[in-house]
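Batch manifest, entry 17 of 40.
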Amino acid sequence: MVKEEDQNNSHRYWILVASKDHVMLGVKEGIAQANHGEVTSLRRMPQM
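Output type: structure tokens
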């Protein structure tokens, strides 16, 4: 059973899958790329 407070505060999580080499390059550059750089899905991500 889902608590009412959980229904009102739903969360969305994004999981990115990448090779270790790509992750390490992203860490070095201070970036992360998702969805091959297509912005459609990325625009749905909430701003933090």
